[in-house]
Design goal:
- This protein is of the alpha/beta class.
- It folds into two domains: about 130 residues, 3-Layer(aba) Sandwich (Rossmann fold); about 190 residues, Up-down Bundle (Dehydroquinate synthase-like, alpha domain), CATH 1.20.1090.
- Helices cover about 50% and strands about 15% of the residues.
- It has twelve helices and eleven strands.
- The strands form four sheets. The protein has a five-stranded parallel sheet. A two-stranded antiparallel sheet has the order 5-6. Strands 8-9 form a two-stranded antiparallel sheet.
- Strand 5 and strand 6 form a beta hairpin.
- The protein starts with a strand and ends with a helix.
Amino acid sequence: MKPPYLIVSQPRILKAVGQGLKKQFPIEMIPDGERAKTLTTVTRLLDRMVALNLTRQSTLIALGGGVVGDVSGFVASIYMRGIPVVQVPTTLLAQVDSSIGGKTGVNHRAGKNLIGTFHQPRLVLSDPLVLMKLPEREYASGLFESLKYGVIRDVELFEEFERNTPGLLKRDPEAIERLVARCARIKAEVVMADEKEGNLRRILNFGHTIGHALEAAARYQRIKHGEAVGYGMVAASRIAARLGKLDESERRRIESATNGIGRLPLLDGVKGRSVLNALQHDKKILNGAVHFVLPRAIGKVEITPDVPFEIVRDVVKGMLDEAKRKP
């Protein structure tokens, strides 16, 4: 009988949560981290699927974090013009964000996720108890992404971070379950209203414009995606304040909530010129202009296409200088 499934995972994830799967399913491993998000990895997965004689009735199962989900979703979307994919996210970031909504892709040296498709998962299976095994930094990375939802759409969620970040950091199971459910619901509502990112869905990119540019400038090393989003949220808030769109007190609240999650990594060696160059390859460029998602108030953001380059440059420079001076 031909195997109807292929599990895609990473060694450390399979060791932590998937030991019992080895005797039941064929499994293909990909490297850890963003370095796995390449067309070379895609080709290797496609070769394995062909060798297993997978058909359009087969299912790819992504067991892992955002990298596993992005790569698996992309491969599933192009194999035989599309087969089902099931997302089983094992990181907080993937449970609250990347496993939901159907965005798939791999990186190009010029920018993150420049090669990809929209391919909705057949099922997303999230177990908050899996998150108890996450390294501290990986877990905090997901909290930065979770905070994003409070800024863009949910004042009460943002205030929960202000009140109870210590409880979230301690990984109280009930608090985590509420957080995952709340963020997943917000993302699902936005995606159902705008699946292909024609308008509303772009608000989910809050913090990601400069965040993705930071990742590219750092060659996808040293900084995790959620940490880059943390920096990106700070940068977007500062840009909004400089433009007079965001009250200074609201900007301070956003930065305080971000800093409350944990110290962001140092950015020594990341050059402002490289960050600005990466911005020019951002997928959110429309009519030649980078579109920023900027907060107007906590719980409300807007898409802004006409941000002066000088402001972006100054904010990026100031942020990088601070990130190199941290004790």
